[in-house]
Amino acid sequence: MEQDKPNSRQDAGAYRHADPIMDEALTWFVTLLEAPADPDTRAAYQAWRSRDPRHAAAFDRLSALGAMPELQAATLAHQPQAALPPVRSSSRPAVARSRMRRRSGWVGGWRASLAAAALLLAIGVHLQPMLTLRLTADHRTATGERREIALPDRSRLILDTDSAVALDFAEGRRHVRLLRGQAYFDVVSDPAHPFRVTAGFSEVVVTGTAFTVQSDGGRDAVFLERGRVSVSRREPPGQTVALVPGDRVTATADSLSAPARPDPAVALAWKDGRYVFHDQPLAAVVDTIRRYHTAPVILIGDRLAGARVSGNYRLDDPAAAIRSLADVVGARVTELPAGIMLVR
């Protein structure tokens, strides 16, 4: 955010969510807890909310979490004290000092409770998708895992690391929902029963073909290896792109791209446990590699984030890939307990 960004980060503690939009929503949530009736704050919040539908969706998720009893207890723990009864004039200075101490203690306690609220929200924001995924997914992979799955119609699915799908093959349907991550589909031909894959923003319809779908929260990417598929946006429906082998298309909340022609060896390298990239910013490369690493990988500094790199790395040893990339850009790697890596 820019001019309509809340300035209460110090009150909400030092927590920063990995998703920038959710981080902004968290900041606004805590800011409105502190000053719910301030007209300038409300106006700035409404401007932020209306600028992007994802802002409203993220804030509404937090509002739902805000109904948790634990969160209410944290945010309402420090309410203003009731007005003191009238006192004799001789004791007014002492009472005034007492009131000031009470007010100071309330403000400090309120800020502490805001930080507690932010922490509870952070935990809830992280746990809610995980719990939903566990309840919804038919197949999930752990960090660093890659698994091949035989589908009920004899089609084949390869599920990439930290990915999840839900299946619906009842009554002749062939429908897979990619809930998270990336998957490769090798579909058995059956013209009478089209095979559908839905992701965050897109739907792919095929009869018999091989393709990949990746969904990372902000966009979907579909790459066609062989056969033919049609890709359409889920909301609003209507826009459709037909792909031929070698095409790649991306779908977001706002648009469906024209087909691009990436190198198939690069687009499908993950199937063989490798990550191939050319002239990419280090930040984007680290974002991909950290999906295969069981602990956080933290990249420090804008100069490093924008450095352009190329490479071909094994995904079964992401720590080695990070160390090698750090050498390429002249960075240092500090390895902390539990596998946490700092690149600076």
UniProtKB/TrEMBL annotation:
It comes from the Bacteria. InterPro entries: FecR (IPR006860), FecR_N (IPR032623), Ferrdict_sens_TM (IPR012373). GO terms for molecular function: sigma factor antagonist activity. Signal peptide: none annotated. Residues 138-229 form the FecR protein domain. Residues 23-65 form the FecR N-terminal domain. The keyword NAD does not apply. The chain crosses the membrane at residues 107-127. Pfam families: DUF4880 (PF16220), FecR (PF04773). Keywords: Membrane, Plasmid, Transmembrane, Transmembrane helix. This is Iron dicitrate transport regulator FecR.
